[in-house]
Amino acid sequence: MSRGDMAKPLLGHRGTEGEGSPTPPAGRTVGVLGSGDFARSLAVRLVCSGFRVVVGSRNPKRKASLFPSAAEVTFQAEAVKKADVIFVAIFREHYSTLCDLADVLVGKILVDVSNNTEINHHKESNAEYLASLFPACTVVKGFNVVSAWTLQSGARDGNKQVLICSNNQEAKRIVAEIAQVMGFTPVDMGCMSSACEIENIPLRLLPAWKIPIFLALGLFLCFFTYNLIRQVIHPYIREQKNKLYKIPIEVVNTTLPCVSYVMLSLVYLPGVLAACSQLYYGTKYRRFPDWLDQWLQHRKQIGLLSFFCAALHAVYSLCLPMRRSHRYLLIETAVKQAVEKKMTIWVEEEVWRMEIYISVGIIALGLLSLLAITSLPSIANSLNWREFSFIQSSLGFIALVISSLHTLTYGWSRAFDENQYKFYLPPTYTLTLLVPCTVIIAKVIFSLPCIRHRLLRIRRGWEKGRYVKFVLPSATGEFSSGETSSNV
Ligand code: NAP
């Protein structure tokens, strides 16, 4: 089976998942070896899905009360005799204790649900090991990616995919059918050699998030240090003023939008680099370097982290007036004003700046929320490709432009005020503008008709050097253009 087929369910959907699932194959008795957490949840779910369940335990009397009354709890050998499909819900270390059952297990389908404690812990996968212990059985790997909790919570919650692999197509079909009746979506992962990959899946901790999280943390650390120097260390060294109180909220709140804004531009920068590469080489059939490929694949996570930082920035900003320091400074200003007998401190320009700054910020956050929501698989699946690309590409770019306006209105004329250059360091917002402005300028250049046309042709398969352009006068005397292969 090809890699692309793996994501397809083995069986077509016959009705909706959960309550509307197809009825179980008549008279199927399913065996479960083991009486632990997984075995119990599995038995409950199988019973609820209409199967007859027989549980094999080393100590059935003691364990029977833990199972639903509809499930029969008996000794392992008895259970194995009564079912053709047997879920082996015990740990790999204990597989060898099942060797006494070898005779009764002949011809049965064993479903290996086990996981390891470390990635690639053993030379061979648990399922291959089980198959080597019981060569007269057919082993199917599956159900290890769902937890006991998911099994109990039913089809309404948790992960619904069950990855399945086996060297025997018929056994795989039967197990897939059971999974579907239970309300899961079986996903064919091919033959038994995929078992190792399937067993590693539950052990991976957010594999797609590692790079984006490190990127966000790296950016946060850089901007935080930069802001700390400007807002806390500089006043302490130059004026002996203790501004340490600014660290928990003010410094963090000036750092978060920087990270969010730069991360948002990093969602669109790889697209720009990819377009540059395609324009330079005049083809879309040349592979991008690995780092660019990786970057392109992580755009969704980078975008979601950008939204996360923006949302935190919004909450921090709303809380700014709640701080004691803010109240003291406000009262201090009022007292000073009274002493100086100033009637008003209204600065028209500042008022406008702030109104625009906040309004634009709210719009940017709204657009980012829309991007984040539509990137969720359940929402994304309900959109067609045009709608999805319009939101993620066009609205995303608008969000970047509006975020830039938000940043510019925040900075206003500070970049031209020499007092803002603490230790000769420019205001932070000027640094954050670098990448986003590059992306915006590049996007504007790419939208110029001559470049846009060339890029579109490349993306439709045109290649530089493989075709020559010719211009012929038409019968009417007008000129028409066409393309022909240079080889011809
Ligand atoms: P557990 O609670 O420790 O249960 C293991 C069961 O194995 C015991 O209740 C025991 O039942 C049986 N067993 C058979 N021979 C044994 C022996 N020689 N020594 C000890 N126990 C023996 O473990 P579990 O959480 O249910 O996990 C069972 C399997 O499911 C594991 O392979 C695990 O990787 C897999 N799994 C679990 C989860 C989960 O969420 N828990 C998720 C995915 C996969 P008897 O005493 O009745 O024989």
Automatic annotation (TrEMBL):
<feature type="domain" description="Pyrroline-5-carboxylate reductase catalytic N-terminal">
    <location>
        <begin position="29"/>
        <end position="116"/>
    </location>
</feature>
<dbReference type="InterPro" id="IPR013130">
    <property type="entry name" value="Fe3_Rdtase_TM_dom"/>
</dbReference>
<keyword id="KW-1133">Transmembrane helix</keyword>
<dbReference type="GO" id="GO:0052851">
    <property type="term" value="F:ferric-chelate reductase (NADPH) activity"/>
</dbReference>
<dbReference type="GO" id="GO:0008823">
    <property type="term" value="F:cupric reductase (NADH) activity"/>
</dbReference>
<keyword id="KW-0406">Ion transport</keyword>
<keyword id="KW-0274">FAD</keyword>
<dbReference type="InterPro" id="IPR051267">
    <property type="entry name" value="STEAP_metalloreductase"/>
</dbReference>
<dbReference type="Pfam" id="PF01794">
    <property type="entry name" value="Ferric_reduct"/>
</dbReference>
<dbReference type="GO" id="GO:0006826">
    <property type="term" value="P:iron ion transport"/>
</dbReference>
<feature type="region of interest" description="Disordered">
    <location>
        <begin position="1"/>
        <end position="30"/>
    </location>
</feature>
<feature type="transmembrane region" description="Helical">
    <location>
        <begin position="261"/>
        <end position="281"/>
    </location>
</feature>
<keyword id="KW-0410">Iron transport</keyword>
<keyword id="KW-0479">Metal-binding</keyword>
<keyword id="KW-0472">Membrane</keyword>
<dbReference type="Pfam" id="PF03807">
    <property type="entry name" value="F420_oxidored"/>
</dbReference>
<dbReference type="GO" id="GO:0015677">
    <property type="term" value="P:copper ion import"/>
</dbReference>
<keyword id="KW-0560">Oxidoreductase</keyword>
<comment type="similarity">
    <text>Belongs to the STEAP family.</text>
</comment>
<feature type="domain" description="Ferric oxidoreductase">
    <location>
        <begin position="259"/>
        <end position="400"/>
    </location>
</feature>
<keyword id="KW-0285">Flavoprotein</keyword>
<dbReference type="GO" id="GO:0046872">
    <property type="term" value="F:metal ion binding"/>
</dbReference>
<dbReference type="InterPro" id="IPR028939">
    <property type="entry name" value="P5C_Rdtase_cat_N"/>
</dbReference>
<keyword id="KW-0812">Transmembrane</keyword>
<feature type="transmembrane region" description="Helical">
    <location>
        <begin position="429"/>
        <end position="451"/>
    </location>
</feature>
<protein>
    <recommendedName>
        <fullName>STEA3 Metalloreductase</fullName>
    </recommendedName>
</protein>
<keyword id="KW-0186">Copper</keyword>
<keyword id="KW-0813">Transport</keyword>
<keyword id="KW-0967">Endosome</keyword>
<dbReference type="GO" id="GO:0010008">
    <property type="term" value="C:endosome membrane"/>
</dbReference>
<feature type="transmembrane region" description="Helical">
    <location>
        <begin position="356"/>
        <end position="376"/>
    </location>
</feature>
<feature type="transmembrane region" description="Helical">
    <location>
        <begin position="388"/>
        <end position="409"/>
    </location>
</feature>
<feature type="transmembrane region" description="Helical">
    <location>
        <begin position="302"/>
        <end position="323"/>
    </location>
</feature>
<feature type="transmembrane region" description="Helical">
    <location>
        <begin position="211"/>
        <end position="229"/>
    </location>
</feature>
<keyword id="KW-0408">Iron</keyword>
<dbReference type="InterPro" id="IPR036291">
    <property type="entry name" value="NAD(P)-bd_dom_sf"/>
</dbReference>
<dbReference type="GO" id="GO:0005886">
    <property type="term" value="C:plasma membrane"/>
</dbReference>
